Amino acid sequence: MLPIQMQLSVELTNAFGAVAAALPWKKILDLGRDLRKSGSDIVVEEDLANVFGRGKIVHALENRFKHSINDTKIVPLHPTCSISLQSGPGPTVTRAMRGQDRRYMSTVIQLSFLGAVCNRTELATALTECMSQRLTCGIQDSSRPGFEDIAGVLEACSSQTSNFDW
């Protein structure tokens, strides 16, 4: 049997260890919630990053893109109203700009461009079909996100990068 002080310290270590282990999950859940509020989805973003994240983006374009979309603007809906509209980088773009995984910035830039030059409904339909075909062909790390989920990611990318003039 361990002395009381030793038992207490072992128990405290176990308690703080559980909190420390749960911290990354809390951050992931918070990010997932923020993405859902913006219309996007953490899993679909990852699925699209597996496809679009392989593309190389010219460094000058990436820097210009980041500089253009970096500012957040808050505009009141009406001078006497407490409701305001916010434009600028939301959770999808903020995650990409952190630079921890270059695939996300590559994905955001490409989806922003495609959203600017293509009809988003047709683009979401085409991407849904392509993602389904990847799964049918047995391509590694492929999945089948739904049309609404892909459309949500496209909307999030487009609205959060609208300050960039394609």
Alpha-carbon Rg, integer:
21 Å
DSSP helical segment count: 7
The tally of strands reads: 2
Report the span from N to C terminus.
Answer: 71 Å
Question: Helicity, in percent?
Answer: 55-70%
Principal-axis shape equals globular
Q: Unreliable stretches, pLDDT < 50, 5 or more residues? A: none
Structural class: mainly alpha
Query: Order of strands side by side in the largest beta sheet?
Result: 1-2
Helix and strand pattern: HHHEEHHHH
**Domain tally:** 1
As a percent range, the share of strand residues is: under 5%
**Residue-averaged pLDDT:** 85
Largest sheet: 2 strands, antiparallel
Keyphrases for this structure?
7 helices, 166 residues, two-stranded antiparallel sheet, single chain, mainly alpha
Task: Report what the structure shows.
The chain has a two-stranded antiparallel sheet. The chain has 166 residues and is mainly α. The protein contains seven helices and two strands, in the order αααββαααα. The chain is globular. It has one domain (38-160). The termini are far apart. 66% of the residues lie in helices and 5% in strands. The chain has helices at 4-37, 42-52, 59-69, 91-97, 102-117, 120-136, 147-160; strands spanning 73-76, 84-87. α4 (91-97) crosses α5 (102-117) and α5 (102-117) packs across α7 (147-160).
Give a short overview.
The chain has 166 residues and is mainly α. The chain has helices at residues 4-37, 42-52, 59-69, 91-97, 102-117, 120-136, 147-160; strands at 73-76, 84-87. It is 66% helix and 5% strand.
